[in-house]
Fold:
Amino acid sequence: MLLGLTSTLVAGVVGLRPLDAHIGEVKRLYVRPAARRRGTGRMLMTTLIGEARRVGYQSLRLETLEAMIEARALYHSLGFREIARYRPMANADDRTISMALEL
Structure:
């Protein structure tokens, strides 16, 4: 887990966990509203990508919601691409998108 900090608060958080020995999964990127549009999400993700490379992952996967336009734009700008679902749908209203980055 990585934290984005300011002098007064935790600005954001993101996690990395294994899907298998070669694939890591990005979990729960969140940036507080007061810290958005300041590069916190990009900093957290670039740090996480570097850590994933350091520990030997060959690729990363993540799920995000269709409605999270800004998050999807961030992921695309970092080289993630949309892929077929890698997890089953949670329910009939599941609006998640799967993405991957080859490291």
User: Anything to note?
Assistant: Residues 2-102 form a domain with the Aminopeptidase fold (CATH 3.40.630.30). The chain has a mean pLDDT of 90. The helical segments are 40-54, 69-77.
